[in-house]
Amino acid sequence: MNLFTPLSWNDTGFILTGILNTVYISIVAIVIGSLLGLVVGFLRAESNKSINMLLGALLDVLRSVPLIIQLILFSTFIGVMGFPLPPFYAGAIILSLYTMAFMSEVFRSGFNSVPGSMVQAARSLGMSYFQTIWYIRVPIGMRAVFPSWLGVALSVIKDSALVSVIGYMELLRTAEQLISRTQQPLMILIGVGVFYFMISYPLSRYGKYIERKMEL
Amino acid sequence: MIEVKGVHKSFGDLEVLKGIDLTVNRGEVVSIIGASGSGKSTLLYCINAIEKINGGNILVDGVDVHDKKTDKNKLRQNLGMVFQQWNSFPHLTVLENAALAPQIVKGFSKEKAEEIARKELIHVGLGEKLDEYPTRMSGGQQQRLAIARALAMDPPYMLFDEVTSALDPELVGEVLDTLRLLRDDGMTMICVTHEIAFAKEVSDKVAFFHEGLIEEMGTPEQVLENPQKERTQQFLSKVL
């Protein structure tokens, strides 16, 4: 019996699952990471030095330890503690936190880019502190950093490939399985590369377009 | 009526206001002149509760501005303020800039807020620019937008903090014209200004600030044409 069978149309569904899983975990991490990053970024822009140092130190850990190590450590740790999670959840948690660490810096500089005098002008119209955050600081600050936000989001899509190490069936992991069956690494990996490109490139073009539109 | 009574204000060790007394009645235009650092702008910031005060009190229609129980957001609705920098909200169109506060602060419907905003914008001569983004406009136009934005809250009082200082000389005229318009409408205004000729023309009362105190106050004729105090004379001889 032949152990190795070539790539066939029957594999399409399997590959598609991998693609969808990559897109899925990326969207989850970008959305959750951005929301958390917005809150943390705001706290960092707004709070005093000591709180800032504490937050900064925590974020430095997330940013400085390679993602692949964070993934393995976390999934091993929760396993040992007796709370194993399915790979998707473990991966989504770590990827979201990792995204948050980068997004918080992006958003912090966004908040800092809104002049204090503009906030003062808004307050002088009778807006409350929270209204100035929601109607002035967030929209103006976010526009300023949209290009950096997109850059982080795109790298998260690519970094999501690392979640394969804890067993999540995303694009790279499905590809690896196909490679071990078909022994056609070159063709499959080129296909995977093309796919990441096809997801990332249009997004980055679209980002450029949005950026131009917002440059009023 | 705005009543400023014995107001003291310090930034750290630096005492900027050393006991200011000033009364502004409804319908009055009061100009505040004086050298940079004499505390004129600080007084406006204290009236609008942007800055806290260290002594004395400020009453707006009998409401103590710096009382802890005073709702500052509510108070500021009565005190329109325009700053040296126009601070247009760059993510909103001209119409949206002026309609935002009536909508979210006063709770008007979007249509009602835009109707009010449109009326004020037409009043200051920006009727053609409603759908533009402010960053595409000149400083003078943006400053007029800032005035219309404050007026859209329908405040009984307007505070102007050197509103022409950051403008190119050729744009000063259009903003001063807008202020004249408001005076003709009977608006109560406090104008901190370096435009002495303008102060002479529009004011009911002029106050000359020197090192945190009102050195001299009276009608424009008294203060600007026949100043009694030496410091006022010195200041005027330098700026005129």
Key traits:
heterodimer, A: 216 residues, mainly alpha, MetI-like fold, 9 helices, 80% helix, elongated, B: 240 residues, alpha/beta, Rossmann fold, 6-stranded mixed β-sheet, 4-stranded antiparallel β-sheet, 10 strands, 38% helix, 25% strand, globular
Q: What is the CATH C level class of chain B, in words? A: Alpha Beta
**Count, helices of chain B:** 9
Overall mean pLDDT of chain A:
92
Number of domains of chain A: 1
- By CATH, the architecture of chain A is named Orthogonal Bundle
Give average pLDDT of chain B, whole number: 95
CATH class of chain A: Mainly Alpha
- Total number of distinct structural domains of chain B: 1
Low-confidence stretches of chain B: none
Radius of gyration of chain A: 21 Å
- The side-by-side strand order for the widest beta sheet of chain B comes to 6-7-8-3-9-10
Which percent band covers the strand fraction of chain B?
A: 25-35%
* Rounded Rg of chain B: 18 Å
In short:
With 216 residues, chain A is mostly helical.
Please outline the helices and strands.
The complex is a heterodimer of chains A (216) and B (240).
Chain A: H1 12-46, H2 49-64, H3 67-80, H4 87-112, H5 116-124, H6 129-144, H7 146-159, H8 171-182, H9 185-214
Helix pairs in contact in A: 1-2, 1-4, 1-8, 2-4, 3-4, 4-6, 4-7, 5-6, 7-9, 8-9
Chain B: E1 2-11, E2 14-24, E3 29-34, H1 40-47, E4 55-60, E5 63-64, H2 72-76, E6 79-82, H3 94-104, H4 110-123, H5 139-151, E7 157-161, H6 169-185, E8 188-192, H7 196-202, E9 205-210, E10 213-218, H8 220-225, H9 230-239
Parallel strand pairs in B: 3-8, 3-9, 6-7, 7-8
Antiparallel strand pairs in B: 1-2, 1-4, 4-5, 9-10
